[in-house]
Write a structure and sequence with these properties.
heterodimer, A: mainly alpha, 7 helices, 58% helix, B: mainly alpha, 9 helices
Amino acid sequence: MKTDKTNKILGEFEKKDNFEAPEGYFDQLPDAIMQKIIALEDGKNTARKEAKIINFPNIEWILAGSIAAAIALLLVFNPFSEDAAPKKVDYQNLLSGVSNEALIEYLAASDLATTDIIAGLESQNIELNNMDMNLPPMDIDSSEVEGLLEYYTL
Amino acid sequence: MEAREKQLLLDLRDARTSHRAFASLVERYQKQVYAIIRKMLIDHDDTNDAVQETFIKVWKSLKKFDEKSDLFTWIYRIATNEALQVLRKRRTQKTTGTDSYEMLAGSLVANQQLNGDEVQMKLQLAILKLPDKQRLIFNLKYYEDLKYEQIAEITDTSVGALKAGYHHAVKKIGIILGMD
């Protein structure tokens, strides 16, 4: 039914291609297209020559290199090893390696006040009476000693 | 795929013969490509631009051609897409206030683009009133005499939808011409 109706409508018309190309058009069209294609390719080649081409190695090689470098860094600077953890400084051990004379000379030459030195020793839990302090004799009388003891609340 | 088409494809993919083979491809299909684009764009100069663009796209896409369809169907698909794209661009860029029909009909009448009598002119004006995609389906079926299966590949539409679309297109033309 549909086909009959379609045929009835279109049957009224002569079926022909009414659009014609200008004379000689199809003779020159292949050449015109090939010229464009050659120009395109020449443009591509020129652009390739002008551009500095850097050939990167294959992505597999880049990945392999990156992984190897990461493993090497981990081995050298292993952040998970115990050695990498910040060490607690053992001041008592450090001080025991220094002679008393050198220590007294350093303290005498420094700007540190005696109170700061004592406070520092206390903060590190270093007991003065455990140290073998071969201090030079001090020329102070008993009243001054009592004053000092009271000052340091000893 | 025909043996001749297979040989052409082999020559196209060989750098030593590709240019000669492509010139031969253009010679073989140029008239059909021109005919389908011309019926969509009406104006010869617009058609010429679209035909050249079509073949350049064919050249650029040759590597992508997977041989699942005929070379001819594939080229037709590129050509019809190009024609539809030109019409779409015109619509989005239009500043004159005229719609697609007025523009195409104006070109058809004013530039005497049609080589036919008054009856043919009436038929063409009626066809121009169809939406672009429906007009394309009508032209492929009626003028190019392609099978629905081929049109389905070219337009990426199901055969059922094409049959219905073609029937509606003819019915519309009949109504426009006062024949229904």
